[in-house]
Specification:
CATH architecture of the largest domain: 3-Layer(aba) Sandwich
Helix content: 25-40%
Strand content: 25-35%
Number of helices: 7
Strand order of the largest sheet: 4-5-6-9-8-7
Shape: globular
Radius of gyration: 19 Å
Length: 233
């Protein structure tokens, strides 16, 4: 329940239905007809995404991190969950089934020889090339995908079909040189340095279901990450 409320609050924030702050906890309790504990759990999720901050005695204020801008990638939300993806289109380069080789197993921690669904796709926003994405789904956890989901939102599809939602992620952002294959797909020179996000996604009890590598080529991108002080100091 609180996950659904959190998603609804995130949707409202992304679409600027709340201007400066969230409604009070009491107002949210009435809006969703749930307990205060459920509302607080939902707000905790929203806060963990870096979208709101609590000001003692004043409520929950919305962080302005330009969610509507295509030049901001909120890594705390997960690269595939950022608002701009609603306006993105895809060109599928490859959609097939492979088995993890030793290199993939070592890079992402998947079992060597595991069956994987592989998607290689170019992503565009306003008809401008945005990124090249290599995505892999562990077939034992995600048995199948549709072409429609690959062209739009894979994560929405697997949440509805397999009840899989991201519990936690490992993300590594680095500046890497383009391989010959990636450069050819992007129409760029091999060896060009690009920002690259490597991500592994887990659900339930840290079960790996997806990992990916996204190469960003859209100009003037900024990467946002929210960190909370857990020490209490």
């Amino acid at each position: 329940m609180y996950h659904d409320i959190a998603n609804d609050l995130i949707h409202s924030i992304e679409n600027k239905l709340f201007k400066e702050k969230l409604p009070t906890e009491h107002q949210l309790m009435e809006r969703y007809n749930v307990s205060r504990n459920t509302i607080r759990k939902a707000i905790d999720i929203v806060a963990q995404k870096g979208l709101v901050r609590r000001v003692q005695g004043s409520g929950y204020f919305i962080n302005d991190i330009s969610q509507a801008e295509k030049t901001v990638v909120n890594l705390t939300m997960g690269s595939s969950r950022s608002r701009y993806h609603k306006d993105m289109s895809s060109k599928i380069v490859t959609f097939d089934e492979i088995h993890a080789d030793a290199a993939l197993a070592k890079q992402f921690g998947v079992r060597d020889g595991a069956a994987l669904l592989r998607i290689i796709r170019l992503r565009y926003t306003d008809k401008q090339l945005y990124s090249l994405e290599y995505a892999y789904y562990v077939k034992s956890e995600v048995p199948s995908l549709t072409l429609n989901s690959i062209n739009h939102s894979i994560f929405n599809y697997i949440k509805k079909k397999y009840n899989i939602r991201i519990n936690n992620s490992d993300q590594y952002l680095s500046q890497d040189k383009l391989s010959n294959e990636a450069a050819n797909l992007l129409g760029m020179q091999p060896g060009t340095a690009c920002m690259t996000l490597q991500q592994s996604n887990y659900y339930n009890n840290d079960v790996l279901f997806n990992f990916s590598q996204t190469i960003y080529v859209f100009p003037n991108l900024s990467f946002y990450f929210h960190a909370a002080n857990q020490s209490g100091n």
